[in-house]
Amino acid sequence: xxxxxxxxxxxxxxxxxxxxxxxxxxxxxxxxxxxxxxxxxxxxxxxxxxxxxxxxxxxxxxxxxxxxxxxxxxxxxxxxxxxxxxxxxxxxxxxxxxxxxxxxxxxxxxxxxxxxxxxxxxxxxxxxxxxxxxxxxxxxxxxxxxxxxxxxxxxxxxxxxxxxxxxxxxxxxxxxxxxxxxxxxxxxxxxxxxxxxxxxxxxxxxxxxxxxxxxxxxxxxxxxxxxxxxxxxxxxxxxxxxxxxxxxxxxxxxxxxxxxxxxxxxxxxxxxxxxxxxxxxxxxxxxxxxxxxxxxxxxxxxxxxxxxxxxxxxxxxxxxxxxxxxxxxxxxxxxxxxxxxxxxxxxxxxxxxxxxxxxxxxxxxxxxxxxxxxxxxxxxxxxxxxxxxxxxxxxxxxxxxxxxxxxxxxxxxxxxxx
Length: 418
Description:
Domain Major facilitator superfamily (MFS) profile: 22-404
Number of strands: 2
Strand order of the largest sheet: 1-2
Subcellular location: Cell membrane
Number of domains: 1
Helix content: over 70%
Structural class: mainly alpha
Protein name: MFS transporter
CATH architecture: Up-down Bundle
Low-confidence stretches: 1-18, 206-214
CATH class: Mainly Alpha
Distance between the termini: 11 Å
GO molecular function: transmembrane transporter activity
CATH superfamily: MFS general substrate transporter like domains
Pfam family, one: MFS_1
Strand content: under 5%
């Protein structure tokens, strides 16, 4: 199926060229990029109380800090396809990884300006990886192996994201720079991914860039299916990043300690990780996923409802949230490839889905922070999340149809070669 915080599945073989044999080096390189797509973001939520205390930021201002990555995803994503077409996928990915490493360090410097500036830059770099990985998998991974690679992709992205949430507070307690040093640990993963992709940059040069550039397709603004894929992507991202940003604070408001809240967030992501690993294997070969997407969204709504009505059952609520959001993530990423007719269309659809999707998602952390500051409780925020999860069920039902986006229009799928 797919894969994070983006990556889909190839449902048939592109007629442009045969895909090379899958190598262990390519798989490792893909997984290292996937590990960077959330690692520098998910730890911020657990560190927010310390950040607010040390910097004087209000909950609304902290909400802006969590909204910046989503806004940058939305702003950057539409330009990735064109840039990739001009300079090559591998070259662009290497540049993005280098920028990510530098920006992660900038964010941890002792300055509020650096905190926000570093977040802006690293978010733009992550957006490049978000859009390009579906194309890398579609272009380089043989059809029969795509399901396995996508499952591994989801696993790597989710596992590192969960670990980042769990270890951020303990790291802040033992490292000299407290929460600033805890924010900087992700540079290790960025550098590892950069090292893995540099040799592939040389391979691209030796091959004259044949594998670096693909067919450029226009963004499918006129496709209703593309809009449904985009809104499903946006709503699942809104739910996930809102939970990452505010779940520890919601649990702390209900009496849980900061450290316990961080590990509960880890548990939530771990459940999502297991779901993400299992779903691509359970749904392999199924091209119509309407009911799967709708059911997963309803499970998310149920999790928020329990968190609101029965806070003592927070663990049950987080279990449901993990199950639902884990499935929705995999589906949202896989739709960007499954609903595209070829590699060029995959890049175009992924760019649109992540631009529109993250623009929708960006409203989540900020809006919930404002609601909390205004009302003094999390009730209104949780009610809004329940309603948005149900809306996500409708978008997922439409995006799950067995259709393709081709030439900017919705088409019935042609013959497939798995």
